[in-house]
Amino acid sequence: MRLILFLVLFTAALGAAFKSTAGDPEAWKIGNEGWAADPTWNDGLAEKCVYDATRTIYDVERKYRATAYTNKERMDAATTTKTTAEDGVETFKHHWSEIVPTENYDYRFSTCVHTECFSMYAFKLTVSTQEDCGASFKLASKKGPRAFEWYDSVYFPDSGQRTGTIGAAWLMHFVDELPLLLRDFAFTRPMTQFINLIPSQKDNHQVDWKPFRARVDYVGKETLELPIGKLDAQHLRVHAIDESWAADYWMADDGKPPRLHVLVKYIGPKGESYSLVSQERTAYWKH
User: Fold this and answer.
1) Cα distance between the two ends of the chain
2) Domain limits at 100?
């Protein structure tokens, strides 16, 4: 009788705990679409995607090519730097390299996120911008399981250096992480997903680090004409609850290699855009 009572109570507690987690409107629900566990990511190469891109600078829409690199990389939990140790945190490194030409000089943007492979928790963000007038740098890294520590240094007048902390790290994601994270959306059973987002730091000015509540809405499956050719894509719209920010993402419908639900099109809140030109696996660091 005691054993039966224990099993009843244990099952009830387990069910309550699962219900609490599953119903948490702030936690990212892992889609488990299989893309992240695909053995392709263990081939020692990186996914290299090139995009036709637009970005407005000096009130003029600039056209250029953007490149995104994605590969697995182990990180030291203490230093949040790359490590070869087997006990390092296994992450997806997702790095955007962008050079935007203007009449005066080029604007350079380097935006790199690390996301933990197993849990899809955000781990680290670094953003640097350089132009002939100066350079700015932003960093957010996980310090233990509960917080991100952030730092920025911006060269514009009345800016300078700032530091701060963001709590509940396991519930936070970066806007700059979404091109990677949205590959994990549950496309086979789509439903609205709530998420806490730290604003995009891809800017040469200071940007607020305060997280905001957002939702990911499934718009539907669409066939797109892209520079790479005709592709089926899943359209997701991500927007702040108060509608102060919104962006549209189209992820490849195909979750198998080579596509693996890669971002194929994007339209951002300020008109910036990406359209997929090419996708390959390569050791880009070798000549």
Assistant:
1) 71
2) 31-282
